[in-house]
Model the fold of this input.
Amino acid sequence: MNSAFDAGQMAGRLRDAASQVLETMFFAGTAPVEEASPAVLDGPAVALRFHGAATGSLSLATDAATAAMLAENFYGMGAGADEAQNVVSELANMVCGNLLSHLDTQSIFCLDAPHPEPAEDWPLSGARALLQVESGLLALHFQFQSNGESAL
Amino acid sequence: MAFDVMIVDDSPAMRRFVRRVVEVSGFAVGRYLEAGDGEEALAQLEHEWVDVVMTDINMPRMDGEALVAALRTHDHLANVPVIVISTDATDARRQRLEHLGAQGYVTKPFAPETLRAEIERVLGVTPEGLMVGAEPDQGGDHDEFSF
Done:
């Protein structure tokens, strides 16, 4: 598993993976945002762990309006808060799988089910990325782990 | 000609999305069956026939790989086509699923036409819904369908 990326390179990969998923499956336009720390995002925040050739985690948070828009695009109709949470979880799953597949095409990973995790709990280490999604924001965090420590 | 489809995914959101994509793509579906994991899928398939199973890989209890393996060794379900729908785009995973007996593989994210094309390829039907090699005036039903 090649984890020889610095945080800046990984942030770019993270943005690319998220943009591809958002544009293809959620029909949402994206643009990179340079700020590293978003304003408080009042919508769903989720995280999932992965195992296999490497272990680590991906976390994702957005604002409530963006979550509702993504759910509506994903389902093709309006959706409630619970459904928006499910859709954001699925988005995190797809972004993580997409990113790992592009980082290493020969290794197999297992992704755990996403679970709610506040963005305030994200570790300081690892790569962070912020995307503008239509008129809202999406924040991402990704890290490899080695013996419980961040390897990125 | 309409086909019966089973969608296996532990994410209700993804099951709903796949169903919507299939509907939007214009593919003719008779019935949709849904299951949250491989065990639930096998239990339903003991009593319900489907023309194609579309399954995720990472699921609790019985994952997609175990489901494909179980179907291939099942007395009555060994020939049911399986399309894997997964975020995992690695060659290693594709080869493993192919070796286990999956006929199709679609990587998320995907466009609706990609999923439809893979369903048609696996089922051996034309975009018009005809069996490959069939004359346009020859319909048929599920009993006449064979792999």
Notes: Chain B has a mean pLDDT of 87.
